[in-house]
Design a protein that fits this description.
By secondary structure, the chain is mainly beta. The protein is 2% helix and 44% strand.
Length: 255
């Protein structure tokens, strides 16, 4: 099983947007060091793309699960705690891609989102929901977990979940990015919750791919957020006749 990312890892990065057409202005920051803005040109023609990591990702460290025999016995091999999860094709996982100044949006869905605890890890590592949308938090392990959620703009909570299959449902009333989640019993278990007021967002999986709903004509700010690589923002103009060309590629690179 893929390892967890490490909060606060000191990894410098740059962010490149490779597209075609009209103009971008890009500025970025790293979780541990400042970065100079880099000027890029391009335009978004499709609402699909990929986030990539260029270079060799950090190796991470082995997770010590010896304090809980149940967690330890779920694995035949060591589980690695990785600051950056990169797939075989260079795709970068766990990145929230969102439109900051999104157009008018549909009502929040009634469908539940899920944050699970399985194999003594959070699944997924990063989950995004709309304002007011129900989030189910489940324990799929036969061991005690607690879920400590510490927002800045929303009400926090700390759930004890002692048995397999137990679940609780929560919702959030204020948009907020990167709410930290952790288990106090198993200190390696960390995740992020994102609360958005519109549907123009996605979170990358193992391939680094993302899909955004098609944007109407207009000028937009787009942000990519990673738990240890930080965030970057850029502006893009979408024209009414901007049909079809190449997908958007977003790339983090180590300095």
């Amino acid at each position: 099983m893929a390892g967890r990312w490490v909060k606060g890892a000191a990894l410098a990065c740059a962010f490149t947007i490779v597209t075609v057409g009209a103009g971008w202005g890009v500025g970025g920051r790293d979780a541990s060091a400042g970065m100079e803005p880099r000027a890029i040109t391009g335009r978004i023609l499709l609402a699909e793309g990929q986030v990539r990591f260029a270079g060799e990702p950090p190796a991470g460290a082995e997770i010590d699960m010896s304090a809980d025999a149940y967690c330890r016995d779920q694995y035949d091999e060591a589980v690695m705690d990785r600051p950056v999860r990169v797939g075989s094709g260079g795709g970068l996982a766990d990145v929230l891609v969102r439109v900051v100044n999104a157009p008018a949006s549909r009502a929040s869905p009634e469908a539940e989102a899920l944050l699970d605890q399985a194999g003594c890890l959070y699944a997924p590592r990063s989950v995004a929901v709309r304002v007011g949308q129900p989030l189910v938090i489940r324990n799929s392990d036969a061991t005690l977990h607690n879920v400590r959620v510490v927002p800045a703009a929303n009400a926090g909570f700390n759930l004890g979940q002692p048995i397999r299959g137990i679940q609780s449902t929560r919702s959030f009333e204020t948009p907020e990015i990167g709410i930290p989640v952790r288990c106090d019993i198993h200190g390696w278990m960390t995740a992020s919750i994102h609360i958005l007021e519109h549907e123009f967002f996605d979170i990358t999986g193992e391939s680094g791919a993302f899909t955004l709903p098609t944007l109407p004509a207009g000028d937009y700010e787009i942000e990519a957020w990673h738990p240890t690589l930080g965030t970057v923002t850029g502006r893009v103009s979408v024209t009414a006749d901007g049909a079809a060309a190449a997908p958007l590629t977003l790339e983090f690179s180590p300095n």
